[in-house]
Write a structure and sequence with these properties.
The chain is 49% helix and 11% strand. It is α+β, with helices and mostly antiparallel strands. Strands 3-6-5-4 form a four-stranded antiparallel beta sheet, with no helix packed on it. α10 crosses α12 and α12 crosses α14. The longest helix has 28 residues. The radius of gyration is 26 Å and the shape is elongated.
Length: 374
Amino acid sequence: MALHKFIQKNVILQYNHFQLLAISSRKLSIIPTVYDGEQDPGPKFFSSGVQALLKRLTRPDFSKVFRKRTNSNRPVLKTPEYKFLTNEELQSEFSKANKTAARLLQMPPVVKVHQPINEVLSKDPALVGYDNTKYLFTDITFGVPNEHRLIVERDPDGTLQMSDHDTRKRLNQIYFPIQGRKVREPMMFADEEKLNSLLEAEKYEYILDRACIQYEPDEPSYQKVTSITYQHVDMKTNYKLLRSTRHFGPLAFYLTWHQSMDNLMLELLQMGVIREAVLLMGLRQAIHEDITFASDLNALVQQVLPMPVQAAKPDSLSEEDIQLDNKCIDCVVKYIAKNSAMKSQQELALQGFKEDYQQMVELSRGLRKAHGEA
């Protein structure tokens, strides 16, 4: 579960029998949590059901996916081209855009932290005292994946052993450099104040993109940086800044894995996207299997998944939409009563949604009746 620690100094002033509390300073310290427990999140994350839920919860928006971004590592933006297309050609272009968007929204993997490498290959006492430095031997054969490349070290005491993860990473970066990755840790990650300043500036996507380049997904440093960023997003409820990016899926998975998803659930209810709230419940059931009405929930999730993404409030509702949304409302009511840790806030948000939704239902039915379609 996400942990937060607040350190503050308070000054209490008394004036005319009233006490005024003045907060002189406040410092926020987020305690990172990594995937280092007995259970490996990888099989859950890579399962087809969870991947479908995470991609749907990402809510792809082409205007955000293909937005202009300034980055020195990217090529210069080209002048857009305008074409006259037939319907078939237009559908072909849409298909290409969908494939490109799927590639750009490919989520960083969520895996368990790697285990230390403690593999001794041999010990040769005859080499003791030969030299006072360590020798590193690296296989630089082209085409060998870095994670499988043979890298060993000979210690001054004659021990020949496999190199640890940090040494392997440095040598791989020297012989086979990855664009954008530094041999030494960038100051934005090494200096806590610099990272905090970026978080306060809400540069979440920049932090996460940079972490994906600098670290491997199973490195403790990567998981600490992403954990701090996810928790900061959750505290500020700034989910919209990561929605329609490749990092929203891992964010939703992290919050659900650590059973801290209720803030996100509250945000979905406040936005009125009741179907995504059901998908988030389905994600919790897929990970923890702790929802009592699992069979009804899974059946409803299968109904919601093929439906188009509702990025904005619809102009009108069909009877099929009304029936599906009513099922979603009933499902959310059960979740709040039995599984939620924020019952009062979520009940209030759901009540506001139901009142607004009922007005929309009456308006849609009235329009169909006026047009003789009832």
